[in-house]
Design brief:
- The complex is a heterodimer of chains A (119) and B (133).
- With 119 residues, chain A is of the alpha/beta class.
- Helices cover 40% and strands 24% of the residues of chain A.
- In chain A, strand 6, helix 3 and strand 7 form a beta-alpha-beta unit.
- Chain A is globular and about 30 Å long.
- The relative contact order of chain A is 0.17.
- The mean pLDDT of chain A is 94.
- Chain B has 133 residues and is of the alpha+beta class.
- Chain B is 35% helix and 27% strand.
- A five-stranded antiparallel beta sheet of chain B has the order 1-2-3-5-4, with helices on one face.
- The longest helix of chain B is centred in the first third of the chain and has 22 residues.
- The model of chain B has no long low-confidence stretch (mean pLDDT 96).
- Classes of the chains: A alpha/beta (119), B alpha+beta (133).
- At the A-B interface, helix 2 and helix 3 of A face helix 2 and helix 3 of B.
- Chain B: It comes from Humisphaera borealis.
Chain lengths: 119, 133
């Protein structure tokens, strides 16, 4: 069943949780809620969470998805953690630039650069 | 020019079908990838705004969508049954004090991607036009 596929694929790179999105669209309310809940659970797992979101598979996202990411970022900061966004395709990156959220989030071109930017 | 008219309840799943039909017309009209991306995001934001902020998710209220699609031209109107609004009163989501707010970016995105955007009927009807293939 398609709806049984988890929205997130999570792996570990040392002390960093690396998250990939299994759907190329982050648009639907239900999908955004599932992703938000999943990311918040990962944030809550550790005292000082380190999270890297790899956007390599993402082709479309909505302003509601941006809102969800803002809330996750807030939660990471509340726990003195670190959040990185990496591998964002040019068209999606433009959405971050238009909304000026590229100033709010720490965005790196590649996953490797993201991983090496954690302190 | 392909013209379509939809009248849907304030329901996100119903809006998904509308978007699929319009996007099929957009692809058939030969828009390039960049514009297809721009149209997809603008359509999503416009319909979600009508359902969420216009009709306040009231299932008894409808959203009317009209689309005219042809080579190098797209015109879409999205009309809700809410109280309307004044564009001038919508806060700038890129202002430093609003950057951390989780909502309020839909209109900004539509205005950034479309050639022209306007509001009619006291803000209940949005008309957006994209020109260029």
């Amino acid at each position: 069943m398609a709806d049984s596929i988890p929205a997130l694929a999570v792996s570990d790179q040392k002390d960093v949780r690396v998250v990939e999105f299994t759907n190329n669209k982050i648009l639907d309310e239900a999908n955004i809620k599932e992703i938000g809940d999943g990311l918040n659970s990962l944030v809550d797992e550790r005292t000082h969470p380190k999270l890297l979101l790899d956007f390599a598979t993402v082709d479309h996202l909505s302003s509601a998805a941006l809102g969800m990411l803002i809330n996750v970022n807030k939660r990471v900061k509340e726990r003195n953690g670190q959040l990185r966004l990496a591998n964002i395709k040019p068209q999606i990156l433009e959405v971050f630039v238009i909304t000026k959220l590229n100033k709010l989030f720490r965005i790196t071109p590649t996953r490797a650069e993201g991983l090496s930017s954690f302190t | 020019m392909v013209k379509r008219v939809f009248d849907i309840p304030s329901d996100f799943s119903a809006s998904r079908d509308v978007q699929t039909h319009i996007m099929d017309d957009v692809v058939a009209a030969g828009f390039d990838e960049e514009r297809i991306f721009a149209i997809r995001i603008s359509l999503e934001e416009a319909i979600v705004n009508a359902i969420r902020h216009g009709n306040r998710m009231d299932a008894s209220k409808r959203v009317k969508i009209e689309a005219a699609t042809g080579p190098g031209y797209l015109e879409v109107t999205v009309e809700d049954e809410g109280p309307g609004f004044d564009r001038k009163n919508v806060p700038d989501p890129t202002a430093a004090e609003n950057l951390c707010r989780p909502s309020g970016r839909g209109i900004l995105l539509i205005e950034s991607y479309m050639t022209s955007v306007g509001w009619e009927a006291g803000g209940r009807r949005m008309r957006m036009i994209l020109q260029g293939a």
